[in-house]
Amino acid sequence: MNRLVGERISIITSKSQTTRHRIKGIVNTDDYQIVFSDTPGVVKPSYKMQECMLEFSKSAIIDADIILYVTDTVEDIKKNIDFVERVNRSKAPVLLVLNKIDLTTQDKLEKLFAEWEQLIPRAEIFPISAQENFNVENLYKRIEELLPEGEPYFPKDELTDLPARFFVTEIIREKILTNYDKEIPYSVQVEVEEFKEDEKQINIMALIYVERDSQKGIIIGKGGEALKKVGSAARKDVEEFFGKKVFLQIFVKVQHEWRNRANDLKRFGYVQE
User: Fold this and answer.
1) Distance CA 4, CA 37 (A)
2) Which has the closest alpha carbon to 179: 267, 250, 270?
3) Is 49 within 8 Å of 199 (Cβ atoms)?
4) Domain 164-267: top CATH class
5) 13 pLDDT higher than 80
6) Residue 200 half-sphere exposure, CB side, CA atoms within 13 Å?
7) C-alpha to C-alpha distance for 67 and 158, rounded to whole angstroms
């Protein structure tokens, strides 16, 4: 989505389940408005948070005027077959975006084309490399051609429908995904408790929630070094995002089993109203 919107709206890492929420990126021109909706990757839920993530993806199919089904050349083509059937039942045009073509060969790519044509016969397939910005412009032009006529959903100066605090939490979570392994990144939730902005500086106080005491120790690290590394990297990105000096404080707190607790999931924005 970042390539299509032209701004860094969604965080990007090599780990699965990087996107947890439904994130809208808005493109405005003199002639049209496009609202891109980035949803979590489809997974078989193992806990309630993943069930909520799947609901974000299901609701996007219902709302969409155009469906961009994004996959890549290394993903198991049949792992989300139930979701593919939902896409097939939709009446919206389907553009199947086959990313990471720079990581495969022409023969393998042709085989993937044939397999996807069988799974979603009405889809138009766009092979791209988001990293290399290959064929993204052609994909964007096709989206323009398929746009239905209608009134804009958002004011012309908006880039997204989400508040500033959300992007702070995502930037911090991106650094956690980058700097920690195994289950740690998936057990973490970030919440901004304080966001005070003046003309020169933004003062932010954020909490990192983990599910167990042992995870808290890992996040903090020996002498607090691991947490300092995350905080320093996050602060730089937050400053770049807002174009302003940032003072960032981060604390770590244990919230047992938050990924399976309905109240916590609602509080952290996983439950759709």
Assistant:
1) 11
2) 250
3) no
4) alpha beta
5) no
6) 0
7) 22
E strand or H helix at 26, and its extent?
A: strand 23-28
What pLDDT shows up at residue 79? 84
Token couple for 265: 């999931």
Alpha helix stretches (DSSP H) within 24-89: 48-63, 81-89
Strand pairing of 124-127 and 94-99? parallel
Two structure tokens written together for 17: 């389940």
- The edge-to-edge listing of strands for the beta sheet with 201-210 is 189-197, 201-210, 245-254
Domain boundaries, the chain: 2-146, 164-267
Arch. (CATH architecture) of 2-146 = 3-Layer(aba) Sandwich (3.40)
Helices 225-242 + 213-220 axis angle, to 10: 70
Cross-strand partners of 38: 23
Could you give the CA distance from residue 241 to residue 26 in angstroms, rounded to a whole number? Answer: 16
pLDDT digits (tens, 9 = 90+) for 203-231: 999 999 999 999 999 999 999 999 999 99
Exposure string of 211-235, with b = 16+ CB inside 10 Å and e = fewer, is beeebbebbbeeeeebbeebbebbb
What pLDDT, on the 0 to 100 scale, is given for residue 125?
A: 97
CA distance 56 to 179: 27
Amino acid at 81: I
The residue to which tokens 């005070």 are assigned: 196
For the entire predicted model, the pTM comes to 0.85
